[in-house]
Amino acid sequence: MRFHTRKWVKPEDLNANETLFGGRVLAWIDEEAALYSIIQLENKKVVTKYMSEINFMSTAKQGDIIEIGIEVVKFGVSSLTLNCEVRNKMTRETIVTVDNIIMVNLGDDGKPKPHGKKKVEYVRDRLASSEGN
Ligand SMILES: CC(C)(COP(=O)(O)OP(=O)(O)OC[C@H]1O[C@@H](n2cnc3c(N)ncnc32)[C@H](O)[C@@H]1OP(=O)(O)O)[C@@H](O)C(=O)NCCC(=O)NCCS
């Protein structure tokens, strides 16, 4: 799993217990999944369809640095299934895991559209191959 994004836990991210608010982490995860899918599928019209088990395993406090990891579980026809882990950057302690996040690739009509992708791609390789043409 690659951890792409880091976040700094700030006062506005806390719950009434003064620890990281679960809803905030889910918003961060949803954005990360959307960004990852848009880059992989090369389409800005990608939406979150489904999230499976969400397991809050430990918490974070103000000032902690956390990082968000994403990996591909499966390329479908119009869907992309992702797995996510959020952990403390310094201690590597897992904060939350989401087993399956289903993202769906849409066409201009807002309906599911086949994305044609079968494996993880890297932007640097795409750029290198377009320069080689
Ligand atoms: C995304 C949306 C267009 C999908 O429409 P749909 O009629 O369910 O589409 P389909 O049944 O054709 O399914 C599309 C893909 O999602 C997958 N899928 C749909 N529901 C699923 C579920 N509950 N679990 C797992 N996969 C699911 C299907 O297997 C299919 O994958 P594939 O093409 O790779 O085989 C529609 O549900 C929608 O607009 N939802 C709102 C999305 C949104 O606004 N999200 C932002 C947060 S509110």
UniProtKB/TrEMBL annotation:
Signal peptide: none
GO biological process: acyl-CoA metabolic process; fatty acid catabolic process
Domain HotDog ACOT-type residues, every copy: 1-109
CC per GO annotation: cytosol
Gene3D superfamilies per UniProt: Hotdog Thioesterase
Residue ranges of the region described as Disordered: 109-133
Name of the protein in question: Acyl-CoA hydrolase
Taxonomic superkingdom: Bacteria
PROSITE patterns, alphabetized: HOTDOG_ACOT
GO molecular function, one term: long-chain fatty acyl-CoA hydrolase activity
Extent of Basic and acidic residues compositional bias: 119-133
Family, similarity comment: Belongs to the acyl coenzyme A hydrolase family.
Pfam families referenced in this protein's UniProt entry, alphabetically: 4HBT
Keywords, ordered alphabetically: Hydrolase
SUPFAM superfamilies cross-referenced by the UniProt entry: Thioesterase/thiol ester dehydrase-isomerase
